[in-house]
């Protein structure tokens, strides 16, 4: 088993790393400052604030996670991310909905 060194991650306060993971049913996203070992934003499709008002499907919730991530980044004066880590997972409907929401802010390479 090979453990990843913290030196390989390159997120900073103004240029953090975006890490996204999804399970069989849910999506989880974190914006991370690796230099200070801090999570600047965390959102998931499990959060009641995301799933309610009005209630929605998991795909719609994934889009809302992306929208909340963009709002948090604007509040933190973050205009770009250093890297986008999908944890080696292929894209699906939830990931696509999330990526559309964050690409509107310019976080994904074209």
TrEMBL record:
<dbReference type="GO" id="GO:0003735">
    <property type="term" value="F:structural constituent of ribosome"/>
</dbReference>
<protein>
    <submittedName>
        <fullName>Large ribosomal subunit protein uL18c-like</fullName>
    </submittedName>
</protein>
<dbReference type="GO" id="GO:0006412">
    <property type="term" value="P:translation"/>
</dbReference>
<dbReference type="InterPro" id="IPR057268">
    <property type="entry name" value="Ribosomal_L18"/>
</dbReference>
<keyword id="KW-0689">Ribosomal protein</keyword>
<dbReference type="GO" id="GO:1990904">
    <property type="term" value="C:ribonucleoprotein complex"/>
</dbReference>
<dbReference type="Pfam" id="PF00861">
    <property type="entry name" value="Ribosomal_L18p"/>
</dbReference>
<keyword id="KW-0687">Ribonucleoprotein</keyword>
<dbReference type="GO" id="GO:0005840">
    <property type="term" value="C:ribosome"/>
</dbReference>
<dbReference type="GO" id="GO:0008097">
    <property type="term" value="F:5S rRNA binding"/>
</dbReference>
<comment type="similarity">
    <text>Belongs to the universal ribosomal protein uL18 family.</text>
</comment>
<dbReference type="InterPro" id="IPR005484">
    <property type="entry name" value="Ribosomal_uL18_bac/plant/anim"/>
</dbReference>
